[in-house]
Amino acid sequence: MTTSSTNWRKTAEAIAIPLGALLFALVLFGLFCALNGKNPFAVYSLIFRSAFSSWGAFQGTLLRAAPLMLTALCTALPARLGLMIIGNEGALVMGGLGAVMAGLLLSFGSVTPGPEQLQQVSGIPSFFVLFGMAMGAIVAGGIWIAIAGALRHYRAVNETISSLLMNYIAIAIMNQLVGGAIQDPSETIKASSFALPAVNRLTSLPGTRIHYGLLYGIIVCILAYVLIQKTTFGFAARTAGGNVKAARIAGLPVGKLTIIICFLAGSCAGLAGMAEVAAVHGRVNESLIAGYGYTGILVAFVARYNPIACILVAILLGGIISSGGALQRNLDMPDATVLVFQGLVFLVILYSDSLYGRFKIFKEPTPAAPPPPSPSTALPV
Amino acid sequence: MSTDRRIYIPRRQIIRGILATAAFAATTKLSGCADGGTDTGADTQGGADGETLTIGFIYVGAKDDFGWNQAHAEGAAEIAKLPGVKLVEQASVPETKEVQEVMRSMIEQDGAKIIFPTSFGYFNPHVLEMAKQFPDVQFFHCSTLWEEGMPTNVGNYYADTDEGQFIAGRIAAQTSKSGKLGFVAAKPVNPVLRNINGFIMGARSVKPDMKMQVIFTGDWNVPVKEAEATNSLADQGVDVIGVHVDSPKVVIETAEKRGIFSSGYHTNQASLAPKGYLTGTTFHWGQIYKEYVESIKAGKKVADGGIPRILQGSLKEDYIQMAPFGAAVTGEVKTDAEQTQAKIVDGSLVVYTGEIKDNTGKVRIPKGTAYAVNDPALDKVDWLANGVIGSAS
């Protein structure tokens, strides 16, 4: 009885505080618009209409949310273990590289196919090629972040700094590879890898323009939630995240947990890279570096590292991003306006974190003194 | 309970906030992940059927970047003045699925019949994909990338800047006292190499012993490295700097601070360096855009050949211009530049006239051969001309 009532209040708090923060951010943004001489209500209604009002508009929102769910997990999972990993962008790039190499190998038999090889796509069914690409991405992205985890565990290197710096290394590796070892010589101005054949691309969900990456994102977020909240492995990880000394004393394999969680985190971001490569670009080049990794960090923060909340926050952010264009084109607002909005939302939601546990209404009522036994039940009959 | 702690914010919280803010700044910086476009109540549904021609412009960065995007935005502003033209513009659109969404909403919501996606990386696959889905819309992309088999409603346009760089190089050589020029460049790819070569060839046509140190920053938009490169060139005694990066702003400003001269690119940067700015090769996209608008208003289409598949030109076509000469350019030098420009326009001077050697001594264009700037042979240039210190690989 008591537990269920606690859960109810906790859930209400976890919903009410971010929601209140969002409304507060909207008010602040409205003030900002009013200062710029725009009617805030016109702005609000435009944001809503352009992001959520129709199925067509909502597709645009979901499409932008898809990669963010996966890159968010790259920060959210290790955070449960008390690690602050921000190497999402690097893992995404490595995942994209792993995916394109696996895809080219399975499609043409070589990552640098010759003219004859390009003419004949191998007979491997597209499902298996895509599966191979996903595996390539998962392994490449996973190993990338696992390195940061291993450095943390074995050499006590700060994982935040190392994973951030590894972003730049990953981008440099990508530039080196697409400009050399795996370069398509016919792309002279923008160094790129060879393109995947059209049959081995990720298609859109039937009847929509959203690619399957969205499905990957939702499924992986749910799996991550189950893993962290409902399994002994997840319990061990959370315990180690709570108090690493206690976890060690309890005999938990902290090193193993660190590396496995980091691997899983990296593989999520890697998968986002695979979806971008297989569904959007068809090849790897610098267009892959679009900031999804960094935006994912924000999604994870705002979602308070809860994988399910990551889905919702990613959709919210997708909506904000997609309304930015409308603000520019319909209200003649500068292109940075949406950044102001995004920044306000994030800062307010982040700082609202310190409000948890401050509201009486969400507190479990202090259990009153046990009621005096009533005479009827006090005496055994 | 703890009323006294109401305004207490834990340190962990502050660190997280700072981290998030930093990450947010990084996002903004790296990607402009910020813009988008599925849209809204359309007040101009199908705007092109009546008198108004709705034209969509998409930029990869800010419209006031003193560089590539500003050059296009200035061109767009020129045609916005024409009667019966309505512009819809969106800036900071990354080269991802995002740009497809932006094109889609410009077409579906704003009724755009013509789209100018101005960044190179938009072309494949994004422009091609949208061109397939909207066969009635015409897409004009700033490149020479169209090939047989691609959607026929896609056209290309491009301006060759070699001739402008040649004139700028002549001005640089006549201004330089140290005899050492510098060049800050993004990547050793064909258009950049050609601009470097044009600059040094112009300089050596005045003083045959001029040397030019080139520094490749490795990327199109890395302000910190661009400033470092400019500083190190200044330290080496270079006194005129040329540039080819996405936004020459940092290079021009740093050169001004160091008290040396600079030659710009893309658009006019004179306001950034009132003392040291000499001139610069600037794109005059407005000219091309005007030609497009005229053809389109006459009912012509690129799909059936009414509009040429590619519009390409240089000084003669007025697709590029020299930025107004700065205060440091003396009367004599000005006259020389104007004369050189006249010779290039009337065809008596061809920049790529053999014999041209690269900086390893190999003959790249033999004696007796001359290439016009739009000659496809020049698209294969992967070398640096004689006099350049640096390597193209």
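Residues 11-31 of chain B form the longest helix (21 residues).
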